[in-house]
Amino acid sequence: MSSFIPTPEQDKALTHPAPLLVLAGAGTGKTTVLTHRMAEVIASGRARADQVLALTFTDKAATEMAERLGTVLSERGLDAGAREVAALTFHAFGGLVIRENLLRLGFDRAPAVLSHAAAWQLMTAIFDKMTFDAVELTTGSIGQIFDRLLRFIGDCKDHLVGPDELEAHAAGMDLAGLAAPALERQSQQLGELRDLAAAYRLFEEAKREKGLIDFGDLLLLPAKLLATQPTIRDAYRRRFPFVFVDEYQDTNHAQRKLLLELLDPERPEVMVIGDDDQSIYRWRGAVVQNILRFPQEPIFAPGQVVTVPMTLNRRSFPPILDLANSVIAQVPDRHPKELTYHKDNLEGRATVGRHVAASDREEGRWIARRIKELEPEARGYPGKKRGYGAVVVLCRKRSLFAPIGQALEEAGIPYELIGGTGFYGRWEIRDILSYLRVLASPADDLAMARILTSRRWRLSSRDLYHLGRWVRRQNDDRGREGQRREGEARFGLLDAVLRHQDVDGLSPMAADRLVALRLELERFEGDRQQLSLSDLVARVIDATGYRRELQAMPGFESRVALLNLSKLEELARQFEQGTDETHLASFVELVGYAAESEEEGEVRPVDEETDTVKVMTIHQAKGLEFPIVFIPGLAQKVFPASPKDESDKWWALPWELRGDREHLPIIDLSTVGTEAQLKKALAAKKETEKKLQLDEERRLFYVAITRAQRQLYLSRAHWYGTNSKPKEPSEFWDAVESSGFVEDLGCEDQPAENPNLVQTGGFWNTGEGGRSCSEARQPGSLLLTGVDPAAWIEETAVREGYGRWTVLRAEVDEHLKRLAQAQAVSGEETKVDLSCTGLVEYLRCARGYRYVYVDRLPTRPSWALAFGSEVHRRIEELSRPFTQAGEPPGEEGERAGNDLEEAKDRLEDLAGVEWTPVSMADLMACFRSSVYARRPATYVEYSFHLPLELGTLRGRIDRLDLLPDGRWEVVDFKSGVSTPHVASQYRRQLALYALAVREGRGVPAERIAAHLFFLRDGRDLELTFDESELDRVRAESEDALRAIARGVFPMTSDRTLCERCDYSHLCEV
After folding, report:
1. Which residue from 465, 703, 725, 963 has the highest number of Cβ atoms inside 10 Å of its Cβ?
2. What is the pLDDT of residue 110?
3. Which residues contact 168 (CB under 8 A, 6 or more apart)?
4. In a 3-state reduction of DSSP, which class is residue 485?
């Protein structure tokens, strides 16, 4: 017999006649009630097991439901019943309907279901047939175009909009009588919809021709079939008279319509169960109004649906639920209910505390210390989650994983990052993808560089420099052989590898490794001609030894890496389904774009019951519970996250076509007469979207809180990442603080400056492996005499924290003051090798130049600089594979640490300009929409050496183009926004570049133009120079080199520059 004894509200949910809406709050026994009600229907004889349809969202949930139902039925002596129940996902049920109605749907055989990879391949095959007159596309963003087109088509199907409906809507858009502002907006949208409808139809026709359907069709086709074919609809109603739906708050519009078609209005035997307070998948298409308005669906008579709330929580101890109730009460549109405590839990008391840390690193350390303190107590907890396994850290953003993970490592606490690195960002995937990229495009130097520096070949930076130098010399139209090469095929790194015997300066070890690499690549090229795509991927994985090496390695990470390699092979097999002809280049494009856009798809097994702390996102924790929960990051723009509104983008389905449009504010353009009225209407729409996203963030916070059983800790920090401004507490923190349910566990003082900017290294190093910091070191003052202090100080700061940095910096500063006092101006003039960056710095402040370039003082890491470096790297990749090599690694200008995947939205201040969070994808989209993405580059990262009387001026130009009319165009990309004074700010730098072009190319000034292109706002600013100005710049450069050679380093007279200088305390300011 079953040991389940229902509470009064559970009993009502089990026994009340259908139709029934059960609002099952967190921890109230939702799945138990659902399976027992299904079992009761079968056991009582009201229905045979094969007359019961149970719908849910994931295969795992469907399997779990069937298993639990089998257990309950077995207890009642009905062992075979569970196998006959149709426990399916919505998509699986849709597939069943399609297979059973092939001829009605126009298929002569069962269609195959396109994976995302195969859909991409099909789009590749037909894209050239598509025409876009109104939709703005750029040739440099094909991956993004495919993604957005497929997203638009998917959204259409989620809202049951086919090509016919899209075309009909466009045909019905009346432009007559609209005022000018409304007419312009409506005309643009009309043109876009016509373009998209044609592309949509072409995609559907291509699928039909090949007997394919996509995931959206699994809902759209059955829903439309049942809506238009009453005979077929009634047959399914008779077949499944009893319908149960789990997690109804997660349904989209198509799933809602499909469900309603299955219900007999005369006898709607349906039970839907869910919780509108836990609806957190709006970004994935879920419509919370489905559960909010279920009792008012037209299929039901007024008052026919009974709503049964389940609020008795068996999970949490006081006052966890009090805090949760106060948070969710702020959501205006919800079913009113409050979670209550089970009597067994009222006797206990949970610890609910809050803490404010100085920085995210200190926040992580506080969490680690607290876990250490709690672990002995947690060993005695009942259940399987004990010790460290009782603890979970729930993060709103993955950017919080790094500081928390490092803090746990420092404390020696075992932990797992659940989904910490996306599938496409894993090192093993990027390594194998690099081989495929080189095979698809031999000129892909970035992929070749990754192969050369991978753990398999391990070429040093110095060897890589020599290879790059050889490439540059071969491509120089004034090379060593004196032959011009313009118009000829350009050399790349692959050429250097194939002809490595001609490359000077390579180490013997590098030469040996390049022989083996050359033979390997030649074998792969032969395989590419003979093998299928999936077999080629498997061959590369095996032949490079990655699979063999990982199989020999113990540990969880190697198992994950093996699974990821298997998934890459499966992805290639899926890609082959799209068309008869499969191209390696198209597959590389798919995976490369997915990596850039950070799509998540990692294969990572998770065992909740291991004795490790789990670190995961809140979305990943839905449905789970833990005795001890930490929720960090309750700061502005961290949690809640910043709103993002794409509703007016061409790839977003217009609200007028959405199935939930009655709940959205639709702009009536016929009432818009002026530009001001249109702006007001658009602002109101944007504000509505912002509120909807904030409500979802509140529900997400509620979900996080209700995961906790015994202890709950909430925290925030003053400083995050490398922000130049401290983070204010978020409104969620304010709600926590004023609730009266949360104990104050301390508040660290806010540092005047971001501690992360002086504690270098640490969690910003996200590569594999680590380094030991246990070796004893000399005092900082001794290091300056013969050892570079930067690495040692950085290493010590990582190990010993900010306090130790302060001591070291004081020692360094004192020593440098003595050096400065003892230094005399030399009367000798020696040759100087100076970069443009160094020259500009010298002219701004000669003393500051000396600290950085002469004394080699360690500099603070700059997020803006790292972000800008990554921006330039990606632009270089999008523009053209680099074929020039610059200075050897180790000289001025080389920067490391460009792994900015999670921290990209932290840029807030650069050169005194106010910044709001910006994504790398947005900047790349701006570039792709520019003329520079559409126009092939002549030189990318063009390096130059300009001989002067006392030395050499060297530099690197982002891009140098020779235009058809013979003019040369210098382009400098900026990752920020333009300001009123930006032209004067960068004029000297651009004049130096123009001077280099004039001298190096023999071009008069009048035929040289310089452009500043700002990726944040798309402004393209042109600067021109005459001969006299370039002559003055040359003379100024000569004077600067002469002063540097003599050791003249006066302090700047502009004291405003001192305010932003890292070394102003060393000067007498």
Report:
1. 703
2. 86
3. none
4. coil
Question: Does 3.30.70.260 match the CATH number of domain 350-420+608-757?
Answer: no
What are the respective helix, strand and coil percentages of the chain, to the nearest 5?
A: 50, 15, 35
Structure-block tokens of residue 240: 């499944």
Question: How far apart (Å, rounded) are the C-alpha atoms in residues 1048 and 842?
Answer: 10
CB 993 within 8 A of CB 957: yes
d(CA 787, CA 784): 6
Task: Quote the pLDDT of residue 579.
Answer: 58
For 664, left (φ over 0), alpha (ψ -120 to 50), or beta?
Answer: beta
Q: Residue 394 — φ and ψ, nearest 5°?
A: -105, 120
In whole angstroms, what is the distance from residue 739 CA to residue 729 CA? 15
> Could you report the per-residue pLDDT of 976-1020, keeping only the tens digit for each?
778 877 778 889 999 999 999 998 888 899 999 999 999 888 899
CB 853 within 8 A of CB 838: yes
For domain 832-882+899-1066, which architecture applies? Alpha-Beta Complex (3.90)
pTM: 0.65
Q: Which residues of the chain have pLDDT under 50?
A: 1, 477-482, 484-488, 595-605, 759-794, 798-805, 818-827, 861, 880-916, 1069
pLDDT in tens, 248-270: 999 999 999 999 999 999 999 99
- CA quadruple 625, 626, 632, 635: dihedral positive or negative? positive
Q: What whole-number distance in Å separates Cα of residue 545 and Cα of residue 524?
A: 14
- C-alpha gyration radius of the chain: 32
Burial of 981 (0-12, 13-18, 19+ CB in 10 A): exposed
What is the CATH number that goes with domain 8-104+217-310? 3.40.50.300
pLDDT at res. 776 = 31
Closest CA to 760 of 627, 858, 855: 858
Q: What fold characterizes domain 427-481+489-596?
A: PCRA; domain 4 (1.10.486)
Residue with tokens 């709690």: 374
Question: What is the distance between the alpha carbons of residues 4 and 7, in angstroms, rounded to a whole number?
Answer: 10
Q: What confidence score (pLDDT) does residue 856 get?
A: 65
Can you read off the two tokens belonging to residue 385?
Answer: 């989650």
Q: Report domain extents, the chain.
A: 8-104+217-310, 115-213, 350-420+608-757, 427-481+489-596, 773-825, 832-882+899-1066
350-420+608-757 matches 427-481+489-596 in fold: no
